[in-house]
Amino acid sequence: MSPILVRPVREQLEHDRVIRLLQARYKRKFEVGINPGNEQAFPVGIAPNAWFPDLVLQSTERSHKLVGIVEVETAESVNNLEAMSQWGAFSKLRVPFHLYVPQSMIDPARRLCQDLQISISEVWMYHMLGDQMRFTLVQRAQGSEPKPRATAAVARPAAAAAARPRPANGARPAAPSARTSRTAAARPARRAAPAPARKAKPAAKSKTTRPAARPAARKKTSGSSRSQKRK
């Protein structure tokens, strides 16, 4: 039971309203049990040392394992006695502990956690905006922060670029253009086929006129010799 036995009626109504709003919010992922007002329907631990936090988060499996605790405070319940008795006990249950406090009590809640060395997974602020209740995350422990997936994907190209050797003078090597790379890739496929061997032309027959002239000369010679014999 909380050390704050009596809350003002207005704060108690606001406290129970926040509990039901958070029940609908956490119900998307967990089985949620609530203990609004003086109800003690969902205990944590074994009697007589059982606690009754405002919201008890359980897994949706058959085991219904305890996976988280949520405590909602008002302006009157953020004090040293409440922090020592409830916050300290909830932070030692080895499950995420979420604390919701009004907007005006953020700094006092942080100081109490720091002075008493109470580790809280998440500290949330709630405040009214018109007719709607707003919730804002103001503090998250390092262990409960989800690991970003995009960081590993971005770090790989950076590590690969750092591993590349650079010239001694610091100048970056010029990257080959797309046109040059395409031309170099296409060169082996563009080899010219061997030209067919040309046939040798037959040699032109030479014209001989001398044998035709020789018989005429012989005739003249024979005629002259005959004339000499007659004389």
CATH topology of the domain at 9-140: Trna Endonuclease, Chain: A, domain 1
| CATH architecture heading of the domain at 9-140 | 3-Layer(aba) Sandwich
Number of helices: 6
What is the percentage of strand-forming residues? 15-25%
* Order of adjacent strands in the largest pleated sheet: 1-2-3-4-5-6
Largest sheet: 6 strands, mixed
Shape: elongated
Structural class: alpha/beta
Instruction: Report the mean per-residue pLDDT as an integer.
Output: 76
Instruction: Tally the beta strands.
Output: 6
The succession of helices and strands, N to C, reads HEEEHEHEEHHH
Q: What is the CATH class name of the domain at 9-140? A: Alpha Beta
Radius of gyration of CA atoms, rounded to a whole number: 52 Å
Explained architecture:
The structure is a single chain. The protein is of the alpha/beta class. It has a domain of 132 residues: Trna Endonuclease, Chain: A, domain 1 (3-Layer(aba) Sandwich). A 6-stranded mixed β-sheet has the order 1-2-3-4-5-6, with helices on one face. Helix 2 crosses helix 3. The longest helix is centred in the last third of the chain and has 21 residues.
Keywords:
Trna Endonuclease, Chain: A, domain 1; 6 helices; 231 residues; alpha/beta
Topology of this protein?
Blueprint: H1 9-26, E1 31-34, E2 55-58, E3 66-72, H2 80-90, E4 97-102, H3 106-116, E5 122-129, E6 132-140, H4 149-163, H5 178-186, H6 210-230
Parallel strand pairs: 3-4, 4-5
Antiparallel strand pairs: 1-2, 2-3, 5-6
